[in-house]
Amino acid sequence: MAEYSTPTTEQEFAENFAQLKPLMSRNEALYESSRCLFCFDAPCITACPSGIDIPQFIRQINTGNDTGAARTIYEANYFGNACGKVCPTEVLCEGACVYNLQEVKPIEIGRLQSYATTKVIAANKKLFGPGPPNGGRVAVIGAGPAGISCACELRSLGYEVTIFEAKSQPSGLTVYGVAPYKITNEEALAEMAYLQGQFGYEVKYNSPITSLPEINELEAQYDAIFLGIGLGKTSGLGLPGENLPNCVGAVEFIAELREVHQAIAVGPRVVVLGGGNTAMDAASEAARLGAEVVTLAYRRSKDEMGAYAFEYDLAKGVGVKGLFNVAPVEVVGVEVVEGVRFVRTATVNGQVSEVPGSEFIVPCDMVIKATGQAKQLDFLRLIPGLEMDGRGRIVANAHSGQTTNPRYFTSGDARNGGAEVVNAAAEAKVAARGIHAFLSK
Amino acid sequence: MPDLSINFAGIKSPNPFWLASAPPTNSGYQVMKAFDAGWGGAVWKTLGVPVVNVSSRYGGVNYRDKRLIGFNNIELISDRPLADNLREIYEVKKRFPAHAVIASLMVGSRQEWHEIIRAAEDAGADGLELNFGCPHGMCERGMGSAVGQEPKVLQTIVEWVMEVATTPVIVKLTPNITDITEPAMAARRAGANAISLINTIQSIVGVDLDQYSPYPIVDGQGTNGGYCGPAVKPIALNMLKNCAQHPHIKLPISGIGGIENWRDAVEHILLGASSVQVCTAAMHFGFGIIREMVSGLEQYMVEKGFNRIDDFVGKALPNVKPWNELNLKYQVKASINPDKCIGCQLCYTACEDGAHQAIRLQAGTRTPAIIEENCVGCNLCSLVCPVDECITMLRTDEGTQHLTWNERTAAHNIPTEFNDERAGGRHHWVPEPLAALGKERHKTLPGKARALAVSKQ
To answer: For the 4Fe-4S ferredoxin-type domain, which residue ranges apply (chain B) (predicted)?
Structure first.
């Protein structure tokens, strides 16, 4: 019997995907904020990619100034609410909390952050607004953490901002790519609505920019263009049988899960390929959807997985079984997936090699490939003068986000190759400042 | 097992823990429940002409998530008819003959004092406590702290009391006075058998930021009340010491003020109390706290080899000296244990901003370092350090020299001029004032800007 039964209603789905970091009550927030030591030049601030003044906002919560706390958070990070929930706080702020060194539980910074920001979102409290119009116009491609953060910052500087989004909703991976037990769609979208209400940028949904004429049109209409396009679809593995139905990419699987919830079907036996955080998410999700056997297969050893240890623990906690030092050689099946043929691997001097004659089949009803996302090179190559590095990442100045085409700026996954929401949000603020400096010349 | 029983000015009690005269001793039900739980005695809620109380009577001081580190009340003395109280005193004494029941009294005229003393003693009270301390409501009527603040009036009333009292008389003193030994001496002159202190401190416990009214709020308004609870213990201990060290008071003292656990009780006893009274802690946590108090006290006595409470009453008093008799040659310096340090750097910022700039940050580690030549041994860093025994104060003098301010004064070796060479801090290094600028400025910047400002420094 699986750890979870297959959810059939929205309520059962919510139970199986219960929030890892549920909203704090006032009382909980008071108790937790009371524990903060108010460290000098606190390590949690340094560990936060967006540099939120954490002891300050915790002190504000503790003294009953929740609105001030939210302002402190948003001044540094426009995805303050989402980051409180989806950030890997265990390896960022909370991992840096000095309490860890005392073997005392670190402050639950993420939950406190969401507590304060949820309050101002729920009350639609006016904290920010657009700056006086300066006549500049900027197009932002992509309404994800990078694009929205950049738009907020640009609006506060007085720019007119239009965001072009391919999908029908904002927030990018916060809705479409994060595991549902980390944040609900409602929470992610509420913050998006709040920010748009505060800053008043325009978003054109279902408006993908894919062609040269569209790019030329943007260049004609806007003074600068921000590329917040993130990454593309799951990369193909080039395996026989990979195109069978029921062999899906993790990114696509999670996006569908976020949209249709329990309406998505996984078979009783699921194999997840990969050793990164997305693989952990996909495996956890398959288990929570009621799959009886979820196998996480990775070509190297357990210790070499890219995923955070706590993410693997989370997957193990819902019954996911690890299968290490194996490489897939074929997705087996006639009309649908019936199994995955693996070969055992050995790592010698850092090089993974296949062990001849060690092939075996793991029978399954579904394969989820969490083996990385492709870069959107076809699109990027349309932009004149835009350079990408050897790994397909847009080359840009770290202090301004400016690309090799001076009118284009970027941040987020498209530039860093795939990181956290908090990285995108923080870097986008820098890029917005870069745009401002460029257009102020 | 050590013997916890006491004989306080003739009042016997199985242990030194008494409930103070307050809401927990408002009825026979409560006192009996307390005795049943293990309390040694109870001072009954003050008897007199019954009062009428307001609704909304208590206010609290919370510290972060800790409730009631301070507590105040605007409740008055007993609002129950005297006969009801007396009947219940009788019942309690009948059921608990070995426990101490002390009647707290507050009336106006000599006639009333005589009447109520006889009535209380007839009911079986083991002793009397005269409430000259209540700082709100009753003092405006010429009673309570109005008496405690006027030694002559206090003396007169105690004399009236002593005319008829056949049981030991304890005078309860108010701390709302400059020198508590004056009313204590007045009590002694009038023949009182003991004193108890402190009563509550006149206070406003807080102001409601929305209603613009002090707590507790009575229909949008409030009044000053009486402050008690853990926060007042330091004030109580000092006043206790003042009375216990006084060469002429020489009366048994019942210690009151901020006693919540056995440690607090032992501190009172070490400074001269031979019984202790508790109110706020019982109001906060219930009578059950007595088990921890008795157990802790017993364990302490076992470990110290004390057989009776009297063995350590006032034991710390010889070590409480006037400042000018302390050894100026004694020197301690802070020492940080890097194995225990968690890198919060509270010691750094505390010393930097609140003391003597004697702690510096070090590259490559978050553990700060002591600048020994600047350290004056003030203790601040060790007090703010959140880790047990991480910062310790180590003695650096050889312990061979002893020189007090009094001795230096006698030897004409003290600073006497504004720019005297002998100024204690004359050679103490302090940074240039302008060096302060910019050190905190980056903290006012949000997010990345802050990080960039730091990296530029």
So the answer is: 332-361, 366-396
